[in-house]
């Protein structure tokens, strides 16, 4: 989360990694543990992204008087 907060790693990159975590440099067990520990943060990012999408879609609605 610190890397995200400091704008070192973008939200898109974190979510892409979470969808398909790399096992290239760590064992399957280590990767699974990292994903498990990061899951609350990943869930928070996804929820915030969904809320932003909902807000953006509302901007396109025109109301006739």
TrEMBL record:
PROSITE patterns: W2 (PS51363). The lineage of its organism: Eukaryota, Metazoa, Ecdysozoa, Arthropoda, Hexapoda. It comes from Pararge aegeria aegeria. This is Jg3888 protein. Transmembrane segments: none annotated. InterPro entries: ARM-type_fold, W2_domain. SUPFAM superfamilies: ARM repeat (SSF48371). Residues 1-55 form the W2 domain. Residues 45-65 are annotated as: Disordered. Residues 48-65 have a biased composition (Acidic residues). It comes from the Eukaryota.
């Amino acid at each position: 989360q610190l890397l995200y907060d400091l704008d070192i790693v973008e939200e898109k990159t974190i979510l892409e990694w979470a969808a398909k975590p790399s096992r290239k440099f760590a064992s399957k067990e280590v990767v699974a543990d990292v994903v498990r520990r990061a899951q609350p943060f990943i869930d928070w990012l996804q929820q915030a992204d969904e809320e932003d999408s909902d807000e953006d879609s509302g901007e396109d609605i025109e109301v006739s008087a």
